[in-house]
Amino acid sequence: MTQAMRQMVSAMVMMGAIGLVSVMGVWASAGDALYQAAQEAAKAEQYEVALEKFEAALTVDPNHLVYGNAYRQTVVKINDSKTYDRCIAFFKQLVTDHPKAANAWMNYGYAYVDKIPIEGAITQVLLANTALGHFSTAVELEETWLSRYTRGNSYLYWPAIFGRTPQAIADLERAIKMAQETTQRSYHVRAYIALGEAYWRLSNPDKAHSIWREALQLFPDNEALKTRLELDAKGLNDFLTAHFEPSRRVDTNVSIIWEEKD
Amino acid sequence: MTMAARSRAGWTWLTCGLAGLAFVAGVQAQSGSSRSQMKFEEIGAQAGVRFVHSTRKFTGKHKADVLQMFTDGGAAVAVGDYNNDGLDDLFVVDSDTGKPHHLMRNNGEWTFTEVTQSAGVGGGNDALSICSDALWFDYNNDGWLDLLVGRFGTPILYRNEGPDQEGKHRFTDVSQAAGLTQFGNTIGMIAFDADRDGWLDLLLGHYFQPVNLLDLKTPHVLPNNLDYADNGGGVTFWRNVPLPDGGRGFVDVTQAAGFAHHTGWTLDLGHADLNNDGWQDVYLAGDYGTDRLFMNKADGSGTFVEVTETATGFDTRKGMNVDIGDFNRDGWLDIYVTNITDEYMKECNMLWHNNGDGTFIDLSRETGTCDTDWGWAAKFADFDNDGWEDLFALNGLRSAGEQNYIPVLLEMIITPGIDFSDINSYPDIGNMTWSGYQKQRLFHNMGDGTFKEVGAAAGADNNLDGRGLGVADFNNDGFLDVYQTNANQPALLLRGKPENPGSWVELKLIGTTSNRDAIGARVIVTAAGESYLREVNGGNGYAGQSTTRLHFGLGRAPQIDKVEIRWPNGQVETLPPQQTAKLINTFAYVREGKGVVSK
Predict the structure, then answer these.
(1) Which of B227, B340, B345 sits opposite A119 (nearest CB)?
(2) If both were cysteines, with which of A234, B190, B308, B470 could B483 make a disulfide (CB 3.0 to 4.6 Å apart)?
(3) The whole model's pTM is what?
């Protein structure tokens, strides 16, 4: 078996495990050649070529989370307003043409999140709110651990004054339940971390600590959990306040989902 | 290395080098229990100056509630010695219909006498105009401070006629004759000599475009974008010119001066010589859009070139205030801009460190001056005379009932296709609170490139809805005091009573060939091996004009070694050593070309 084939099988297994069955089989498609060409162009910093190839690959397979993720990470690397707008416009057309493609909606939402750090405070609100709407569409089309976690995390970024933290808790608890019903993956810890942060938002640090301690039993080596549990009240407050700073980029690279090995 | 990284590295070098040396000396001089501390005592009521400001109440077919919310300013103060008695007086602005302002003559020893009526300067809040700001400046160089009242309307220029036979000062409205008849929604005003011709020019900052909010023809008068609005009032620039009758007036030269393309929502203006070339430059703080920096072309034309892109970059924050000072004593003037930082919006203030190469870098986070909640006026001043300029920053938008307006506003903001410019889009605020009950911040300059917030310990952390600051030494005791105005709330007078203060000197400059107020003059005082830089400004700071005297805290210096003055016309004058030696811990007048004079 070639290395490429082994990667393909590994990716298929991973995606199946997290419920992204709709992307199975795409590695052998025409989209894959375009994707590989796009990756090479991006590596060579030929960004215009890379963007065109990624868009072509996604046009072939709109629901491909891997293609969309790589496309967006390239856009983030370019990091200018015009390119973010291009990415948003591309996904807008993609979901218009393929309204049932859940992962396209996920990428569409992430594209808005990706632009937030370079925008003004009010525009940040509008981008975040639009992203939330697209994540909701993705959840409705295909409920996965990733879609629930993403939307829950998205609600979590809203200050408590806006009253969206309970919705974050509901989504994150659902993601945790879904994770408990499958093979444990290292990234599943993120839902526990975020759920604790939601309770911190609600000024309930005891509950937050309880969730993080419970998670530490499942993920004993996780540094993010340890950091949160080791901080005193003020330290945790300062840490999480900085963590949720709107100008701080939210990592929307979800490649860990298919890169994690058994 | 990016420009920002280069700049940051440069700043580190500067603090470790030039300012760092000064810091070591300063700390050694003030170590342990001898360290000075800022303290204030609020005495507004006993001094008779605790005036309650009222914002304009709207009526009519358009949403009065929303219009009042958007014009929730005007609580302004202007400090100036209008009668030349050696004591800084107060002019306090009100904004509601028919409400008079207050001209308060300083009697010394913390009593003031209201002379508004006899002076004839109480008016301006008529049915179609809202008073919003005030500025003392001697527009005709006759030696008496004149008074400009800014309005959402046409400005009012009062000429100070000097004392009558009874010693009372009377003022005459000369707005029309002086050419100040153009309508504008003016929120900020500064006076400086842009072309160094010896006469003070005027830069007016306008919030709304020039439509009368009290007689609205269209509801589309609000910002067309909440981060990138370009439908504001911009600024107008007025050159001081001779009139046929021998008097002085103003002509609108906004286009020629290079300001016409700015159509943002100006909230405040600041001027200073930012590149050390001897000419006054301009910083504009804009709401709903980027701040802008204009450099003087330095050719005597009184025209400017915008350098925002290369100097600071474009921002999308809510610039509320401009003040300028050399916070790290590196010989380059820095800029402090307040923005909005609250639970729901994390804009952070900007402390633009002047890199000395035409670029600035925001060091508000590094210096600890980032978060002052919903910012308004902020002023640099050395309140404890330790030789380092501190920062006093006002906060708070609207303190009212328990319900918070922000979630209500959010629903409007995220409504698809909403027209932000339409006043009908905005929900009524009623009795809701919006960024209210926020405490003022007093930042003690630690002399190491950082500030420490000491508002509570200093007695300056009131939670009123602050707007304007007038900083001055009202009783000539060598300690700076603060007059704080608040929207729809009583003003405060904070008497400075620092503990273990350093030594000081205060200089009132009088121009002769330069403009009489010496606005734009730069003074460098040298004492105990340290140099302290100040410039006379003509109204920097939101809704407030502070004293035009230059106040220097000098740490533990036992004497002053040198005083060098660069007058606004560019001439440099060094005070004779025998005069300099007597200046420590005194207030002195210095006349251009004459050195220290009795008055």
Answers:
(1) B227
(2) B470
(3) 0.91
